[in-house]
Design brief:
Blueprint lengths: L1 E7 L5 H11 L9 E11 L1 E10 L4 E8 L2 H26 L1
Parallel strand pairs: 1-2
Antiparallel strand pairs: 2-3, 3-4
Helix pairs in contact: 1-2
Length: about 100
């Protein structure tokens, strides 16, 4: 899985990058299913997390979340992303 994390309109602080990397570990169980994970974080009064996940079989999952708190927005996005990845994984396993 290739991970790309970009900040738009601001620079990440080291603790923010560490938090993002720690949270991305939640989807490591699907490492062999995911081609790449593209995360874009924008700060415009709120933190806006925009994530696209490309799966091996061509499926694409897109997740977005926003909050005034960086960690809260990241957690919201990761909760939804985790559910989408599990759903895709279950779909593929049921077809085998």
């Amino acid at each position: 899985m290739t991970t790309s994390v970009n900040a738009v309109g601001f620079e990440f602080e080291q603790d923010q990058l560490d938090l993002i990397n720690k949270k991305i570990e939640r989807v490591k169980y699907a490492d062999d299913l995911i081609v790449d994970l593209l995360l874009k974080v924008k700060e415009d009064k709120k933190f806006i997390f925009d994530c696209t996940v490309n799966f091996r079989w061509g499926a694409v999952a897109h997740v977005a979340a926003e909050d005034y708190d960086f960690a809260a927005a990241l957690n919201k996005m990761m909760d939804v992303l985790d559910q989408k990845v599990k759903k895709e994984k279950d779909k593929i396993q049921s077809k085998k």
